[in-house]
Amino acid sequence: MLRLRPPPPPQNNASSRRGHNNRVSSGDHNDRISTQQRQSSTQIKSKFVRRGGRQRKIDAHRDVIATDENSSVRKSSIHRSKQSERQEDESTQQHYRHRQRRNNQQVSLQDNNSESSSHNNHQRRRRKGGPSSSVSNPQSLFIALIRLVIVSTLAYFILSNAVSIMYHIFAFLFGLLHSSSRKSASYKLDSVHVQNIEEIRHVLELAKTEFDILQSSDQSQSQLHSVRGEEKIGYFEQINHPGDKSVKLSVPKFYASVSIGENGSVNIGGQKMFRQLTLGKLLTPELVKMIGGGPTESESIAPYDRTIFASIISKSDSKCSNTVTNLLKSAANPERIRVAVVDRTNPLSRRYVACDAPPIPCSRDPDQILCIYNANIDVYELKTEHDAGAMFARHIGQRMYRGEYYALQVGVDAGNVFSDGWDEELIRQLEATNNEMAVISTYLSETKIRDANRPIQATPERYTICHASYKGDGRERRLEHIRSEQVHQTAPPDRTESPMLQPFWSSELSFSRGHFLLQVPYDPKLCGLDEQDEEISMALRAFSSGYDFYTPNQSVIFRTKVDSNSSNVEGLCKGNPKNKSRKRLYSLIGLHNNDEDAIPHEYGLGAVRDTAKFFTLYGIHASERVTEHRLCEFVTTGNMHDEFVPHMRHDGMGIDYNRISFRFHELISIHKDSHQ
């Protein structure tokens, strides 16, 4: 019995159609057989639909076999057409196999898409007798409703609080950015900042600890340090007199000076100055907070309660004690002020009066101001024959600094009078600059009042130091600024709350943070130089070290005539020492070349700014030794202040002049046109 091949699975319609087509193409003599085959196929399909699973397939196959066995005609026809069917199958088999592969790929792709498509899922459910698409599931509707309520509520919350949410997001991002910028500013310093931060921090910590120990051994009840007991324990050092190296002077050691041992140990009180550690570069905000702490100082203390170091020099002034009395009595917080006086005097003179001596002995009247605050006063007496001028006296005065927060230098002599509350007013003005490197400086206005017990009020008139010129002839022609050429007037109406920037510095009044004395120390080898030499050199050195000069918005300290009997004392500085000192001074500030002496860096220019910038800003032509005029008009109107202050460093450590391209002489024609 001949057994035919079983028909293809019903799900592969293409295969069924192929078998059907093959049988149709056998010829006309097979029409009857094809008709019977179609009827048989129809019966198979109907049975395949009515019955399910594997059993239905087996039954359908058996029906085909039974039908074929009962048809003898079909067997003989198939036998006769066997050869022709093989030929036709071979010719068409490859074509239909290709179509079957393509159909199988399409069916597989549709099956994959149906897993993620809700439409196909619905169609499958319909084929399997599932619910129609028009029939809704109550549970699905409930879940969809819950989702809609949640999404609507969330959308309403976001829309109603959109502004607040965006604000908090931007605040968070800004906080991260700001924190990152501060961190980078703390650790990525440019070339003008000190690089040996840890070394400087260690030295400052040792210095504070060292002087705290020295203070605790002092029997006085003062909260401030003093140099009185230091000489007794050998804390002074020997230096040469600038006019005669054979003369040795015992002077206090610089604050935060160190010595480096062979094993690398650091000891306070050595020959290496603080300026040699910084190399004239800009300190960081963290380091300046450590300078000026004092024995009981902290950042939480109000500015008016911070300590002040007041340095005064006297030239045989019999009224020196009156000046010290007036300074303390007029202060709002005298207990926070430490006075250091360098008195160039002759103790054997009949006119001699110690600067800290009260009119009446303290045993008889202990309530006198000099008796109450005697522990806050240090007096260094320099014999008349050892007098080397104001600059050398100020150098000794700077050595008496012991870590106070503010530093005041006042007067070319001791003939000064202070207004009531002068200390708080100077602090207020300095803090109003918002500049850690600010220095308030001016010439002192004159007053006829000399009585230390008579109160005096501040006046709105003050000097603005804005004019400099070259004086002298030939090689002696030098840059200087004198009092009579400066502007003495009140501040503009819109400039009365804070000081204004000015180009130059005065030795008569200088008020700053304490680190100014450590960064710009006076040179001890300058002998017999006058005020003009001192001021222009200090201005250039301070400017190159990063400091900015301001004129006060009112006068709080005044000067009087001095009844000195030795106003022109030069001592050992007569002749060659004085000329040699002047050459050294101008070499220090880069105006002259002096090959005779090696200039130590600690008394030279700073490394923050170039002096060429100073000359360019203020119309000074150093090579031609001439200056531009009308600079005061640019300064006193506040135009200079408005031009430069916006370029303050982000950390408040002075003005960044590298960002300023201003040149004063470019504005000369404008000034002339506006004033013709």
What does this structure look like?
The protein is α/β, with parallel strands linked by helices and 676 residues long. Helix content is 42%, strand content 12%. It is built from 23 helices and 21 strands. The strands form seven sheets. It has an eight-stranded mixed sheet, with helices on both faces.
Descriptive key words:
676 residues, alpha/beta, eight-stranded mixed sheet, three-stranded mixed sheet
Overall pLDDT level: 76
Strand order of the largest sheet: 7-6-5-8-17-10-18-16
Shape annotation = elongated
The percent range for helix content is 40-55%
Evaluate the radius of gyration.
Answer: 50 Å
Distance between the termini: 135 Å
Q: How much beta, percentage-wise?
A: 5-15%
Number of helices: 23
* Largest sheet descriptor: 8 strands, mixed
Structure summary, number of beta strands: 21
Q: Report low-confidence residues grouped into runs of 5 or more.
A: 1-8, 10-33, 42-54, 128-135, 178-187, 294-298, 563-567, 667-676
Oligomer: single chain
Helix and strand content put the structural class at alpha/beta
